[in-house]
Write a structure and sequence with these properties.
single chain; about 625 residues; alpha/beta; 5-stranded mixed sheet; 21 helices; elongated
């Protein structure tokens, strides 16, 4: 066993040595940054390169140029001379973070580092033609700018691009803040910040002309002024933070400079968005649409590895360093009063509350294991006690039969309650009539008896219709129908049933319509609609009518009653659906109506607003005539 372990260890050691063999011991990778490695995305690239290639015995060195501190070409020459002395042996690969780093080191690329393969990360489309224009931050004069690709043609270099996804970021902001009408852009006076502002302005003019752009920049503003300005921003403002670089030898408050990212989050009412990865896991920023630092670092490492394997940098095409996604911090958005309903579905979220499955994963797995164990035990018991289980099955069937019998009894009890209510009124007021001496009281009692007679009759009819529907024996007899006359008769009948002060209107076409259909069932549906409208309309009006459609007729009853809530609308046509227990009825009428309309090959529906009223409607396909000439033979 020890011998086997030793052989495996020797193989691993040999393969590692062979892997590192092509590289000279003096080979190293030089990472040159335009400013410093204190920012998240630059530090991430440097650490990723260092951690990856240190394992392969390749040294990684970093150099900070601090270009914003350079005042003129004298400072540039000093830095170049310092690099020349510090690195007498040219690197194996040079990684320039930012075009300015490559531009400052250009004298070295012309001589000492001429053939060194170079990767320019975060490269932009245009670059100043001379170092003086870079130091002067002159990005407006087009004669002073040139395409970066053209400037690099004579050098052994390739570009790794991280585009600014400004349009996508602003679209994300508009989804999160629908009332957006202004963008505030926070930047410093570095070359890359000015370049980004220029791109932002172009994008907004082209794609978002309705949005206004305001720039908060240093040195025009102190950090304290910046925070004061942010505190005045409202929810109609989208804030995009790019950078806020200030040298500590200024008179600024050093604490504010060191914690400016946290401060912007604390002082701003709306969320603070970004165009590049600034580690939104901390919650200082809401996020944006960009290539993550991790993905970009992987692209840099892959490109460096290609060069180490023998590919010249000039032979590697310019490419984008990864795939962009929308990255958002869930808690940052919540703390800045953004409604979760506005959150994009396809975004990558950080600090998001765990889902139910994530939160109870252990419990669910444990429960699943217990269930599996119980199932196994049940199967074993099934084999051993087959007869016992058979008796259990018989007992369960008996219980099911008893349950069905109980449900039937409950239904009968409910119906008996509904029937008893009008019966009690009929019997009680009939006795009162016998002892009444006032004609007014007698008339009122008679009206109550008549109303309850109609209610009782409707209950009985509903129950009978339900039983016919269950037995599929609902009868349909088709005859010629004068639709206008039918509605006029119903309007006259229901005029006296409305509440006091409620007006019943009906609307029919100028020319009467004649159809061949089931008059009794058609009347039943409209009557049910009118009965419900009279029950629930205390004031206002009830309007009934019909109109011709392309393939038949559409009937409707509109009221100004109490209406139906949104959550109850999907259940209106279900059996026993009652949304007001103080109103008499079985809840069967509308269910029966739906069955009738479907048997007539029509459609039925309701439109309602709670507190404003309802419109019940149905359509039936039929052949419409304007003279009473309809016959059964004419109906296909």
């Amino acid at each position: 066993m020890k011998r086997l372990f030793f052989i495996v260890y020797l193989i691993l050691l040999t393969s590692r040595s062979l892997y590192a063999l092509p590289h000279d011991k003096d080979d190293y990778i030089l990472v040159v940054h335009s400013i410093n490695f204190s920012e998240v995305w630059t530090q991430g690239i440097y650490e990723a390169i260092n951690n990856t290639f240190a394992e392969e015995n390749i040294s990684v060195k970093g150099e900070e140029l601090s270009i914003p501190a350079m005042r003129d070409t004298t400072d540039v020459n000093k830095k170049v001379e310092l690099l020349r002395k510090k690195y007498p042996v040219p690197p194996k690969v040079i990684v320039c973070i930012g075009d300015p780093a490559w531009l400052v080191c250009q004298p070295l690329f012309d001589k000492e580092w001429k053939n060194v393969s170079t990767i320019i990360c975060h490269s932009q489309e245009l670059i100043p033609t001379q170092i003086e224009y870079l130091l002067d931050r002159d990005l407006q004069t087009i004669q002073h700018m040139a395409y970066t690709e053209d400037q690099m043609k004579s050098y052994n270099a390739t570009r790794l691009v991280q585009p600014l996804y400004i349009k996508e970021t602003i679209e994300t902001i508009k989804k999160l803040q629908p009332e957006l009408n202004r963008i505030v852009f926070i930047r410093d006076n570095r070359y890359i910040s000015l370049y980004t502002q220029k791109e932002l302005s172009k994008t907004m003019q082209a794609d978002f002309p309705d949005l206004k752009l305001e720039v908060l920049s240093t040195p025009a503003l102190s950090t304290e002024n910046l925070l004061d300005s942010l505190s005045l921003c409202g929810k109609e403002t989208g804030i995009i933070y790019y950078s806020w670089f200030i040298f500590k030898n200024t008179h600024e408050n050093h604490y504010l400079i060191d914690n400016v990212q946290k401060m912007t989050n604390s002082f701003s009412q709306p969320p603070v968005y970004i165009l590049a990865d600034l580690n939104i896991e901390t919650g200082n920023f809401a996020g944006g649409h960009y290539i993550s630092e991790n993905d970009f670092s992987k692209s840099v490492i892959a490109t460096v590895r290609l060069i180490l394997e023998g590919t010249e940098a000039r032979n590697i095409l310019t490419h984008i360093g990864g795939t962009a996604h929308t990255h958002l911090n869930y808690q940052h958005l919540l703390s800045h009063s953004i409604e979760p309903s506005h959150f994009p579905i396809n975004a990558i979220y950080y600090q998001q509350p765990p889902t139910f499955f994530q939160k109870y994963k252990i419990h669910l797995f444990s429960g699943f294991a217990i269930i599996c164990l119980l199932i196994t035990i049940a199967v074993l018991r099934f084999r051993l006690y087959f007869q016992k289980l058979k008796r259990e099955e018989e007992r369960r069937e008996k219980e099911k039969a008893e349950e069905a019998n109980r449900l039937k009894s409950a239904f009968l009890a409910n119906m008996s309650h509904e029937i008893r209510t009008p019966l009690n009124a009929i019997v009680g007021f009939s006795n009162l009539i016998a002892h009444s001496e006032s004609p007014e009281d007698t008339a009122e009692f008679c009206q109550i008896i008549e109303t309850n007679n109609e209610l009782l009759l409707q209950l009985i009819n509903d129950i009978l219709d339900l039983s016919k529907i269950e037995a599929d024996q609902l009868e349909f007899t088709f005859t010629n129908i004068d639709v206008s006359a039918l509605l006029a008769t119903l309007a006259q009948t229901f005029k006296s049933r409305t509440k006091q002060g409620v007006i019943l209107e009906y609307s029919i076409p100028e020319q009467p319509c004649f159809i061949y259909s089931e008059k009794t069932r058609l009347t039943q549906v409209i009557t049910n609609f009118l009965t419900n409208a009279c029950k629930f309309t205390m004031e206002g009006s009830i309007k009934m009518g019909y109109e011709e459609t392309t393939d038949g007729l559409r009937f409707y009853v509109t009221d100004t009653g109490k209406g139906i809530s949104d959550e109850n609308i999907p259940h209106v046509f279900e059996r026993f659906a009652k949304f007001d227990n103080f109103i008499q009825g079985t809840g069967l009428g509308l269910s029966i109506c739906m069955t009738i309309v479907k048997r007539l090959n029509g459609e039925i529906g309701v439109e309602s607003k709670e507190g404003k009223g309802s419109t019940f409607w149905f359509t039936i396909p039929c052949e419409v005539h304007h003279e009473n000439t309809v016959t059964s033979e004419s109906v296909q």
